[in-house]
Amino acid sequence: MLTLLLFANLSIALAQKKERNLKVKNEVKWFTDARFGMFIHWTPLGAVNQEIGWSWGRELAAADYQKMCKEWNPTKFDADEWVRIAKNAGMKYIVFVPKHHDGFSLWDTKATDFNIMNTPYAQDVCKQLSEACEKQGIIFCTYYSIADLHQNEWSKMCWVEDTVFEPVKGGMDAYLEFVKKQCAELIQKYHTKNFWFDGFWHSEWYDNPKYRKELSDYLKSLDANIIMSRLQMPSKPVGGQWDDGWDFEKNVGDYHSREDHGGKEWENLYYKGPWEFCSSVAYPNYSYNSNMKFKTAKELIQTMVKIAGRNGNYLLDMAPRPDGSVDDTQKRLFSEIGDWMKTYGETIYQTEGGPYLPLKGDFVSTRKNNKIYLHLLSGQTSITLPAFDNKILSAKIFQTAAKVKFKKENGKFIFAVPANYKNENDLIIELTIKGAAADIALME
């Protein structure tokens, strides 16, 4: 995963005025409406507590890594159960990792023999998952690593801050054809709707924009509605750091993407366009490790709310065991999130961020139609916010009849939470206004 460097041109400063969210393209609308998705990293390496891709040539010799892949037999894998966990959690799409940096492909690919069909298991994982998603009404999406240790015969995965890279076997032109062939399979055979690209920092890729443009154009020619992100970086690393997002409107792709780096830098951001934040229930682990330390359901729910209030999607990772089963702790966490979403999902799904910009991480707002939802995350009993011109027709605690008293004073709204109303995760004030909430300019 990458180290974070913030770029001012990708977010709006909190002091800016009269800014509005960008209009979302038709093909991206399902994505922004969904707001919540499941990431899935799955590997046999969890049997020895090693991370997918990155342990190749480091903690494990390349030959030992490949041996574990070739001998894999995940007899407890149940695609329907995985998708059911996501659906019950309130997730609307799944981003499955069918090929990480190691190059081991979890589908019946014709581009390489290093795939799941040449193992004792010998079953097409992508086929099972895509069919389970279709059956349960979940949108199937795929991660895809541009970097490929096996195909290029690299000794180990390069770091983003490396200045010397092992060469791409056969040159980038030939390798791009390999990438195109695999991506075409994922579109044509499994109907992926979104590519979450990774491993794009090799110099032969980022030094030449023609490759990412050619790949993007090719994929769009196969499916005009396919969306994608993370095909390029805006610049080479500065002081060993990269930016996770980029101005996709001037480059290739359909939405911004940021990764969790364990800090709170993202809490100072607000994107006007579509974007997504990825993390794990046990960050920094994305693939299974028996020593994983899990976040609480409250932490995960509040992160989702904070991301939605910043106009973004939350992509939360599940890490199945090597045998295909999912441990009880992860099941419980996703179930608890799902219970919350059943009651409060209306304030997340199909919303956009604003009109209020985030305040110090303990307050965000979301909106849709003629509703504005004020999310109070730290037990506030009152909140003072800039006034907008639209008339407030009603103010109440969400999903109750409890009215919220408010007044307008010196260009500010002052809202008072009724006594005895508390919510451990997120106390939500629902405002019904005259006019469209989306038309209100962003305010600090």
UniProtKB/TrEMBL annotation:
Give the signal peptide as a residue range, or say none if absent.
none
CC terms in the record's Gene Ontology section: lysosome
Q: Where is the Glycoside hydrolase family 29 N-terminal domain?
A: 16-346
An example GO biological process term is: fucose metabolic process
> Which Gene3D superfamilies does the entry link to?
Glycosidases
Family affiliation: Belongs to the glycosyl hydrolase 29 family.
- By what name is this protein known? alpha-L-fucosidase
State the species of origin: Flavobacterium granuli
